[in-house]
Write a structure and sequence with these properties.
The chain is α+β, with helices and mostly antiparallel strands. It is 39% helix and 20% strand. Strand 13 (364-367) and strand 14 form a beta hairpin.
Length: 413
């Protein structure tokens, strides 16, 4: 959540910065009105409290001087009631402010470029050589005829946008997961096995609720299937105060992820690029406020090095404001080259959310006598299904078979 105290004092500045994300003035009107209402109520409450303090002193003075205190006592009692009512009204406004702010996205960093969509994202670097074929490369759904992916039976078992991995495809998925986790461990990320069902407080903490509830699968008892391991990994320290010396904390986990993809009708309907259930290895970091910039660069390099080790050409892309996620202050995407599609496609997204998630999840650290909000970062390392797609398309042979990257071969024995 954005810092409401800062926003109240610097409303126009925050309004301008949020316009980078496409947030309109009208979207912030409710907050502005609530700020003004709270300011008025707060002043009325302070005036009542000042009057009460003054009359309380007079009450003691009157008693000492033997004066009749009954009229003043009635005023003190009445003022006390009015203070209680005004206090409740201020608390109610605070609740309304938090509710209104819960659907306002994070403020983008100054370094985030202007732009309305992914077309305005800025390429930072190309990594690796794009492969060239002496035949026309196929897309992964055509190569899936080798038996690795069964689309029809996945739909039969569930519904559209579900699929089966079979034989070599299933073994490759398992190999990738184990390789990714081992790779991340070398860079200091602690492996964690997390619950796949989380309660609403956890999804509020990382920013999926309340704004994106339509994209979540919810059980009858109020739990949610996680859309990413970012949710449980970040919230391990929900409502806790860490010691500064504990930071940074670096975590990694493999989970299936579940998304309704409510806003993606008609996009990537073929293949396994956009599924309701997919496998992903996530990396998450909790840092001090001074550490998060360097951590973002480090996490981007970890994901990039992972792709390099697989021999997959890719590029790093700085997202513009219009393509930036709800909780992110800054995001660098890694896009892998897909020969069959003849384009780069996102395979990892590394974000610094600054203190936005920590404020919602109340994750703090003690720095001397102060309790400060941690900075949280998260990223894919990598999306397993999309890595399978990338390997199928980049390592395809003329006869339709798929070669296996050397680093994965020990994991397939």
């Amino acid at each position: 959540m954005i810092d409401l105290k800062y926003m109240q004092k610097n409303f126009l500045e925050v309004e301008t910065k949020l316009s980078k994300k496409g947030v309109k003035n009208s979207d912030l009107e409710a907050l502005k009105n609530l700020f003004e209402k709270k300011k008025k109520l707060q002043q009325e409450l302070e005036d009542l409290q000042a009057s009460q303090n003054k009359n309380s002193k007079l009450f003691g003075q009157y008693k000492k001087e033997g004066k009749d205190v009954e009229p003043l006592q009635k005023i003190v009692v009445q003022t006390k009631k009015e203070i209680a009512i005004k206090g409740e009204m201020v608390n109610e406004i605070d609740w309304e402010l938090k509710k209104a702010a819960s659907i306002i996205p994070n403020i983008p960093d100054e370094s985030v470029p202007l732009g309305d969509s992914e077309e305005q994202n800025v390429e930072l670097e190309k990594v690796g050589e794009i492969p060239h074929f002496d035949f026309t490369p196929k897309e992964h759904w055509e190569l899936a005829q080798n038996g690795w992916i069964d689309f029809e039976r996945g739909v039969k078992l569930a519904k559209s946008r579900f699929s089966l991995l079979r034989g070599g495809g299933a073994k490759l998925e398992r190999a990738l997961v184990n390789y990714f986790l081992d790779f991340n461990a070398k860079y200091g990320f602690e492996e964690v096995s997390v619950p796949l069902l989380n309660n609403g407080d956890m999804l509020y903490g990382t920013g999926q609720l309340p704004k994106f509830e339509d994209d979540l699968f919810k059980t009858d008892d109020g739990l949610y299937l996680i859309p990413t391991a970012e949710v449980p990994l970040t919230n391990i320290y929900h409502n806790e105060i860490l010691q500064k010396e504990q930071l940074p904390i670096k975590l990694t986990a493999h989970t299936p992820c579940f998304r309704k993809e409510a806003g993606s009708a008609g996009r990537d309907t073929r293949g396994i690029i956009r599924q309701h259930q997919f496998s992903k290895v996530e990396i998450v970091a909790l840092t001090t406020q001074e550490q998060s910039d360097a951590m973002l660069e480090s996490m981007v390099e970890v994901a990039s090095e992972l792709l390099r080790s697989l021999g997959l050409a890719h590029r790093k892309v700085l997202l513009c404001g219009g393509d930036l996620g709800f909780s992110a202050a800054k995001t660098v995407d890694l896009e892998v080259w897909l020969p069959g599609q003849n384009c780069y496609r996102e395979i990892s997204s590394i974000s610094n959310t600054r203190d936005f998630q920590a404020r919602r999840a109340r994750i703090r650290y003690k720095d001397g006598k102060k309790n400060l909000l941690v900075h949280t970062l998260n990223g894919s390392s990598l999306a397993v299904g999309r890595t399978i797609v990338a390997i199928m398309e980049n390592y395809q042979q003329a006869d339709g078979t798929i070669a296996i990257p050397e680093v994965l071969q020990p994991y397939l024995k």
